[in-house]
Design a protein that fits this description.
The chain has 390 residues and is α/β, with parallel strands linked by helices. The protein has 17 helices and 12 strands.
């Protein structure tokens, strides 16, 4: 008997999250080749997801029933958001109960949506539901000090009475280990799955020509971590020649563009076209990640995966998420414990470029990126869904 699986995206709209949802859909389709699949999301987001599907998965689009839904405005926060979450939750659960789904996957759910989901799931039986929790999980390691903010945080909502058919995805084994350390009772409801990602097909890494600048890139939207990246660029270029510093992404605010000045190349207020993003990512020598280490104890990093996908070693402030993949997948670059250590490392690279190690790191990065591909994740996802539906 074929299965029927619902994938729902109530949290995200637009194009920026579409590749992750497309990768999740492809992983579901590969995990259950006999299954019927329904995808529910805001209409525009569904269009972006369809366009993000790789050519090799073109047949997947015909297997999926695309079902539009209204989602809450992203600008509303706090308790005011709760009343906006209940309508989609009730609609989602009504479909879960009436359509005969074997399992339902929420591609992401924020804390107020989870609050509504827990309340409504207590009213009547549902199929097993697997909810993906993203960056808000990090609050478990850094609880707000203000009592009201603590009352509204994900930690409080996770501790509410738990519907037995609700399960969670932590986007990486290191994240699940962190939850086990911090909240061992709640960890029983979690399953680990690496972040699903659609990998580009960059050209094979070519040896860096002698005399060409070493290019250091900041992947993604200029936000947290961009200021220390600019500071590193200033310190390194003041002491050594032969480097270029690029933004492989965009800087949405004037403050970030002012911070970049003329030292960081490629700074633009608008997201890059895909072709330009790929060209720029391919031209980078090293990716530099200077996000605060505590920010990545319980959250995944799409920028890190993008770095691997383009075959680029990373120079990174040590954090549990990235360190776990270094331990698991080999020499992917350099883990540093301070900005000073990063600066000194970069100066050594500029002084004596480690050509052989660099080429091996590039090969390791390309091989490691397959860890996040739908074909690799499909068996893991099938195992999780079979476990919760048994």
């Amino acid at each position: 008997m074929s299965q029927h699986i619902l994938v729902c995206e109530p949290q995200c709209s637009g194009f920026e999250h579409a590749p992750v949802n497309a990768a999740l859909l492809e992983a579901v389709a590969l995990a259950f080749p006999e299954a019927r699949i329904t995808f529910r999301a805001e209409e525009e987001h569904s269009r972006w997801v369809r366009e993000a599907l790789p050519q090799g998965a073109a047949a997947l689009g015909a297997r999926v029933h695309w079902h539009p839904m209204a989602i809450p405005p992203r600008s509303i926060e706090g308790w005011r958001r709760v009343r906006h979450e209940f309508p989609w939750v009730r609609s989602f659960l009504a479909e879960c109960r009436s359509a005969g789904y074997d399992a339902c996957i929420l591609g992401s759910v924020a804390r107020m949506g989870l609050f509504a989901l827990k309340q409504e799931m207590r009213r009547a039986p549902t199929p097993p539901i697997l909810a993906v929790l993203h960056s808000e999980l990090n609050v478990l390691a850094h609880l707000p000090r203000h009592p009201l903010r603590r009352l509204l945080c994900l930690d409080t909502i996770l501790a509410l009475p738990h519907p037995p058919r609700l399960h969670y995805i932590a986007l990486g084994e290191s994240i699940l280990e962190g939850i086990r350390e911090l909240r061992p009772r709640q960890a029983r409801r979690f399953h680990a799955l690496d972040l699903p990602y659609l990998l580009p097909e960059p050209p094979e890494e070519m040896p860096r020509p002698d005399g060409e600048p070493v290019r250091f890139g900041f992947f993604g939207s200029a936000g947290k971590g961009f200021e220390p990246f600019c500071r590193l660029a200033a310190e390194v270029t003041a002491r050594s020649s032969g480097s270029e510093w690029w933004l492989v992404g965009f800087a949405p605010s004037q403050c970030e563009r002012d911070l970049a000045g003329d030292r960081i190349r490629g700074v633009s207020p608008d997201p890059l076209p895909l072709a330009e993003y790929a060209r720029r990512a391919t031209s980078i020598t090293y990716s530099v990640m200077v996000l605060p280490p505590h920010a990545y104890r319980l959250r995944a990093s799409a920028s890190f995966i993008d770095t691997l996908a383009y075959g680029k070693p990373v120079i990174c402030l040590r954090n549990p998420y990235v360190a776990s993949y270094f331990a698991r997948l080999g020499d992917l670059g350099y883990l540093c414990d301070s900005l000073d250590e990063m600066r000194d490392l970069i100066l050594r690279i500029l002084s004596d470029f480690p050509r052989e190690r660099y080429q091996q790191q590039c090969a390791n990065a390309r091989a490691a990126s397959k860890t996040f591909s739908p074909p690799c994740l499909a068996p893991q996802l099938r195992q999780i869904i079979e476990r919760i539906t048994a």
